[in-house]
Amino acid sequence: MDYDVLILGGGLVGCSIAYELSKYNLNIALIEKDYDIADDISIINTEIVYAGLEIKDNEATLLQHKGNQLMDELANKFNVPFKRCGSIILAEDKETEDKLKSIYENNKDKEGYNVKLINRDEISKLEPELRGLYNSALYCEDIGVISPCELALGYGEVAFQNNVNFKLEEEVIDIENIAKGFRVVTNKNRFTCKIVINTTPGENYSMDFSQPCCDNTEKEYANIISLNKYYNNGYKRVIFSLNKDGDKIISCPTNKDETIGLICSNDNLKNHLVIEKVSKLIPDIKANYINSFFTSEFCKNDIIIDDSQIKDGYVKIRGKHPAIVTMTPAIAEKVRDNILGILKCKPKKEFLDKRREYYKFNEMSNEERNEIIRLNNRYGKIVCSCERITEGEIVDAIRRPLGARTIEGIKRRTGVCFGRCQGSQCFNEVVSILARETNKSINDIVKDSKNSKIILKRIKEFDEM
Ligand SMILES: Cc1cc2nc3c(=O)[nH]c(=O)nc-3n(C[C@H](O)[C@H](O)[C@H](O)COP(=O)(O)OP(=O)(O)OC[C@H]3O[C@@H](n4cnc5c(N)ncnc54)[C@H](O)[C@@H]3O)c2cc1C
């Protein structure tokens, strides 16, 4: 067999499983069709670490709760900012008040759940900007915010350092059953392995008999508006506003002082309707505060880990639930236990559970800046003046384990081009640095994927000047 374990898909879930399994003496590869891991999540996400609060417990709530509890240690280990800011869940009507009471009753006596029903005065005390508009709410201390993209990079980089083979730009075409294992066919190779962990949405592989992710009745749209750091609604916590019709509005403060607004609906809403609807909770949105709009489908299916074929060595993870970021540490541990149940392997003695250090110039003191510039003068050259990102950080993003190979990859790792000018000042320089560091022609640099070249072609080719 080429590998003990093949992980299909390099999203957050695939990377978290790669990280967890890289602690063992296993020969592992991860296959991802894109140029980078966790490509989508940084742009479409509310970044909430949920607590697993529901009226009844199911797999999804248990995975959320466990994931929530494991998050501090992981964030610390990977040097990923994680703010346990807490959350207020507001009831807009009597029916929702009753629902919040049931959630409270289900969770109040459980260890590790910090929930409390609060009244109008208590709401105003915690969040004065809510201006006493709500009679009751559920307050939960455990909810927090984390950058899912940085979390994915943490998982991926540590797995890579511990010898997980990342096969990027390689698309899985089929999975076939063979004696004592599988053959995974990609657009470039055919690999054999004992175990397949499939985190891709593909449902048409020869041997995937698992049920479709969910039916249409379980789907809903998440309409997201992202507001820059110049907008401030004054909320310190994640605020949910719920009503009996199932409407849900969320205001979420990110770790970068931005605000993410979300409205769930049965339709993909036009931008002006998103603004109109979230304004109930996120008022005074002006055009110059808006970074972007996104819409994505959720699927609140209960089954996240389908291990019905684990005896044959096949596990499928369904990644459409709105709290998968939160669940990743728990999903990874559960899959690990599944694998350890069927493969004989031992923990790696030389496992390195640490991410290579990196520097954020705009968060350093002047003394620290001088010190780092003394060691590497590229940290003395500002490329993105809006966010104060240096050439040193961009070069490190490219050279580090599982480094960036696309402009979006550099943006995600450093924050460059995310400032007020959205890259109009620094974009060209970032392209030049990536070309120089990867020894490529500028014509071959891509924004995000194979079909996203920055420069299509030269206007004229000259034989001589
Ligand atoms: C709008 C929105 C907001 C969210 N907010 C939150 C939140 O606040 N908190 C929270 O906990 N969770 C949140 N989530 C959930 C979470 O972000 C996602 O569900 C999660 O990132 C999914 O990760 P994944 O690895 O399962 O899937 P993906 O990220 O989709 O990864 C699958 C990977 O497989 C690759 N792939 C696909 N097909 C192939 C193939 N044939 N061959 C090789 N590779 C392939 C893809 O390129 C992709 O990289 C949110 C989700 C959405 C949509």
UniProtKB/TrEMBL annotation:
Residue stretches making up the FAD dependent oxidoreductase domain: 4-200
Short name of one Pfam family: Fer2_BFD
Coiled-coil portions: none
Positions of the BFD-like [2Fe-2S]-binding domain: 382-435
InterPro entries per UniProt: BFD-like_2Fe2S-bd_dom, BFD-like_2Fe2S-bd_dom_sf, FAD-dep_OxRdtase, FAD/NAD-bd_sf, G3P_Oxidase/Oxidoreductase
Matches recorded under CDD domains: GlpA-like_Fer2_BFD-like (cd19946)
Entries under Gene3D superfamilies matching the protein: BFD-like [2Fe-2S]-binding domain, D-Amino Acid Oxidase, subunit A, domain 2, FAD/NAD(P)-binding domain
Name of the protein this chain belongs to: L-2-hydroxyglutarate oxidase LhgO
